Amino acid sequence: MHLLAFYQTLDLSKSWLVFLITSTFSVVLFSYLLIICKGVYNFYFHPLRHIPGPVLSRITDICKLLVLTSKDISSRSLDLHGQYGPVVRVAPNMLSFSDPSVIPLVYHRKADKDDFWTHGALGEHAPTLQTLKYTEHVKKRRMVSAAASAHFSRHLYENSADLIFGKSSDFADSGGDEDTILHATRHSAWLIGLMTMFPYILRPLRNVPGFGRLLLPKSGDRSGIGKIMTVRDNLIEQSEGSESPTLKNNLQEYHSLHPTSISQEDVEAELLLLMIATPDTTTALICATIDNILHAPDIQSRLVGELNTFVSHDQLHSPVASYAEIKRIPYLTACVYEAARLCPSIPVIIPRRVSPGGLWVNGYYIPEGTSIGASPSVINRDVGIFGPETDRFRPERWLERSDEEVSKMHRFLFSWGFGARQCAGKDLALMMSLKLFRDFDIKPISAISGRAEDKGFAVYENLLVNLRVRDGSGVRD
Length: 477
Prior knowledge:
11 strands; 24 helices; disordered C terminus; 52% helix; three-stranded antiparallel beta sheet
């Protein structure tokens, strides 16, 4: 009635007003009909209509918002496969699978990435993570792998800047996030999530001349990813002239050797990705390891005993042990791998495009172009690969099984992806986690772990611990 009363008050003698009203009504009606028609097509006529899954997921991409709002993506993925089987339709054109044997068929080196990785959220130039075509991805991956081939040993957020640029942001000493990297990353998670979940909305807007660039983050912005770009550019400027073996210098050197295949913009895009991804994912792994060990007194006791034995027998260099030395501490290494298995830093599905010719997955034919992937939380709990009790934190599984079984576990540990295209920061995350436990004795202050999965990332808050520095005699305050 209110709408009718408003309509009756309008002076329809004005042609522009009539045009505005009818145009708006037509656009709304057309959009509404288009959504209905698309939903009907997705449910009844789509090539994936025979794949089981929740009704909403088979009709509309709106279901993807559940990933952004869910605080427990891992449990949701496990429940879906428990209810619908080894292949689940989690969106109209996206499938999730749970069989590890399918991984090499989907995540092979020539597989193109899905539009999930469409660039824009991290700026105009796509880093390796957001490079869709495998041919371009190979070029950029070579650069990153070459730059990261040296060994670096630093701690967490402020020292990720030291690793990358040779200059620390020092916010741990100052008592705050002085460059707002952490704050900007967390508060940009919604925008990044929306752009990855609904790329077909982003792309047309991004390609509008003049307007598209206004939507993208850029250096000079006062908040969000643009703020981190500003910090990056400042650190690049401050590190000019330094010959230290930093990732920035290594990337710049690779660019100078391959100027036609790798641009300066590519270097800057990779540096930005390293600044954003390295601290959050590494911190999540460290927190997962601490959280699980502190909730298992027997495991903690065995680990402390092993570390003290290695230190007392001078089997670790002091004050800085090498990565190779630390990896020879068997139980510590097993604890970190088990934490990575049970609590992956990024528990969302990592999609790829089905290659030309399609493929068969557990009795279903999947046509080429389909978006398909697997959740690390699902793959990492496969009893055929990881043995019994996969819901438990049990480091012993990495020590008591045969060499062949352990090798298979390492191959299919999906926390960093699969094969040659695993996350380039995997070794860095492992190294930093291992070194933390080598250098500190850790005791809980609060029994509350504070673990959550927020917008596709594992986040730990209120995980309060007391750290005591280890020396040659074991530990000291």
